[in-house]
Write a structure and sequence with these properties.
Blueprint: H1 7-18, H2 24-31, H3 35-47, E1 67-75, H4 80-88, E2 93-98, E3 105-111, H5 114-126, E4 130-138, H6 148-155
Antiparallel strand pairs: 1-3, 1-4, 2-3
């Protein structure tokens, strides 16, 4: 479980989001905080796992993976951990999320083209414990992964649902 952010943490992350190359000193000046306070908070946020890895900012398209898909996977009961570990070994698997309902996992994958997606799907089906898959192509991204609206709410110290 990651640490809970306070309004100052949220303001700090918003400032970094606006200018990821901003120095600690510039952040301190912008937020009206001591440089040591900013440095300590950033260190705490990183060590607590609040901040995603930098790689999350890289678009798969920049690496030649122009096709994205979401694959739901039905798994043999009690096989989720083993299946998830096997899926993590496939480089084109970007994320695996456990679901409630008929399907057990939601797997986000990227592929170079349709033939490559076929190959990746075959790899998923070959994983011991995978019973069934259903593939849905990602045609267009309407809303990017975002945290800014929630950070803005936290920075204003409003509570969720207010």
């Amino acid at each position: 479980m990651t640490a809970r952010l306070d309004a100052t943490d949220a303001r700090l992350i918003l400032a970094l989001s606006e200018d990821p190359r901003c120095t600690v000193l510039a952040l301190a000046q912008q937020l009206g905080l001591a440089r040591n306070t900013v440095q300590a908070r950033l260190a705490r946020l990183e060590s607590a796992g609040v901040l995603d890895p930098f790689e999350r900012r890289v678009r798969p398209e920049a690496l030649g993976y122009r096709l994205g898909a979401y694959i739901t996977v039905q798994v043999v009961q009690r096989g989720l951990d083993d299946v998830a570990a096997s899926l993590a070994a496939i480089p084109e698997v970007l994320e695996v999320v456990g679901l409630s309902g008929v399907m057990d996992l939601l797997v986000q994958v990227v592929a170079v083209d349709a033939d490559d997606l076929w190959r990746i799907t075959e790899q998923l089906l070959a994983v011991p414990g995978v019973q069934r898959t259903d593939t849905n192509l990602a045609l267009r991204r309407f809303v990017d992964h975002r945290m800014t609206p929630l950070l803005e709410r936290a920075a204003s110290t409003a509570r969720p649902g207010d």
